[in-house]
Write a structure and sequence with these properties.
Layout: H1 3-23, H2 28-40, H3 48-60, H4 74-106
Length: about 110
């Protein structure tokens, strides 16, 4: 695989994930957590969409997201539920325009 093919593949996967987030198929927090690193590998220098999603990711450190959630105690998840709900509202409001843009730019 050439570098150009790798970048095209990463961007395609980012577009698919973003489209799933826009449609509601993928949770906003889990999606941002996965989308941030993908965009970091997509060769997007000074890209406002990647920066917006990176901002969301930086605020999610330490929260039970993705597959790591299965390792958290139910009591801890219950205690964090209000924080997760608030973070989801903020992430949706802050990042959805960037997510929609990524879906348009790189989606299949």
């Amino acid at each position: 695989m050439t570098h150009a093919e790798y970048i095209a593949d990463v961007r395609r996967r980012a577009g698919q994930l973003a489209a799933a987030m826009v449609s509601g198929e993928t949770d906003i927090l889990d999606g941002c957590w996965a989308l941030g690193p993908l965009l970091g590998q997509a060769d997007l220098e000074a890209d406002p969409d990647a920066e917006a999603i990176g901002l969301i990711c930086s605020e999610l450190d330490g929260l039970p997201l993705g597959s790591a959630r299965a390792n958290w105690a139910p009591e801890a998840l219950s205690r964090l539920a209000p924080q997760l709900d608030s973070a989801a509202v903020w992430a949706r409001r802050t990042a959805m325009p960037a997510i929609q843009s990524v879906a348009r730019r790189f989606g299949a």
